[in-house]
Amino acid sequence: KQEVTQIPAALSVPEGENLVLNCSFTDSAIYNLQWFRQDPGKGLTSLLLIQSSQREQTSGRLNASLDKSSGRSTLYIAASQPGDSATYLCAVDNTDKLIFGTGTRLQVFP
Amino acid sequence: DGGITQSPKYLFRKEGQNVTLSCEQNLNHDAMYWYRQDPGQGLRLIYYSQIVNDFQKGDIAEGYSVSREKKESFPLTVTSAQKNPTAFYLCASRPPGQGASGYTFGSGTRLTVV
Fold first, then answer.
1. Chain A: residue nearest B102 by CA?
2. Does A44 sit within 8 Å of B102, measured CB to CB?
3. Would you say B29 and B94 are in contact if contact means Cβ atoms under 8 Å apart?
4. For A101, which of B33, B42, B107 is closest by C-beta distance?
5. Mind listing the pLDDT tens digit for each residue in A17-61?
6. Is A88 on the interface with B (CB under 8 A)?
7. Residue B24 and residue B5 in contact, taking contact as beta carbons nearer than 8 Å
8. Which of A3, A57, A47, A45 is nearest to A28 (CA)?
9. Among the partner residues B31, B43, B110, nearest to A100 by beta-carbon distance
10. Three-class SS state of B21
């Protein structure tokens, strides 16, 4: 059974720092991996999608990498801002459904 | 703009009542999903549907029911058999094709038992 783990569970940093959020999964037979952002009381916003044949994806200050063989993905946030404060969720897609980690709650203070 | 619309945003249920959460999408996606989110836990899959008139149970289907009569709509009914329904419910959809595209989520419905 696929299990997804995210480390750390919470992170509080000053503005301007570069951050790394980690995601690991137990079954490497995935179609893709998707990173989401969730603000309190809101739905999920897709940040990056990495297909199983890809190694990384970039969008603005965000970069996500995927190493299927080791069952790991990292989300790199450059030059963090207070507006980046949210919960970040990693999800893997296999057998036609998304399996989620429990998320990393990020707070960036001025 | 294409997207997923969930309604209502907040819903209150009395003990013993059935309530229905609405999910509508105009993305022309074939597959639709219902997830439940509880504090401190990841999202858990309730039901999903790959095509009209067909749906499958997810990991926590007990106490819930769904229908898929139209491609655009995938309503979720929380029945009185669901013992702990207070949670945040999220609907999602995905286009056909394995891994080609990601999932799109709605803005959620917060259900509270009163």
1. A49
2. no
3. yes
4. B42
5. 999 999 999 999 988 999 999 999 999 999 999 998 899 999 999
6. no
7. yes
8. A3
9. B43
10. strand
A105 close to B (CB below 8 A): no
For residues A30 and B69, the model is more confident at: B69
In the structure, what pLDDT confidence band is assigned to residue A1 with cuts at 50, 70 and 90?
confident
Contacts of A103 in chain B (CB under 8 A): 42
Report strand pairing: A62-67 vs A56-59.
antiparallel
Tell me what the pLDDT averaged over chain B comes to. 92
Chain A nearest C-alpha distance from B109 (Å)? 9
Burial A56-83 (b: 16+ CB within 10 A, else e): ebeeeebbbbbebeebbbbbebeebeee
Chain A residues 2-21 with a CB less than 8 Å from chain B? 4
Tokens of A48: 């990056």
- What's the distance, CA A107 to chain centroid? 15
pLDDT-derived band of residue B99, with 50, 70 and 90 as boundaries?
Answer: low
Please state, as a whole number, how many other Cβ atoms lie within 10 Å of the Cβ of residue B39. Answer: 6
- Model confidence pLDDT, tens digit, residues B44-67: 999 999 999 999 999 999 999 999
Summarize the confidence of residues B29-37 as an average pLDDT: 95
Q: What's the CA gap between A19 and B107, in Å, rounded?
A: 27
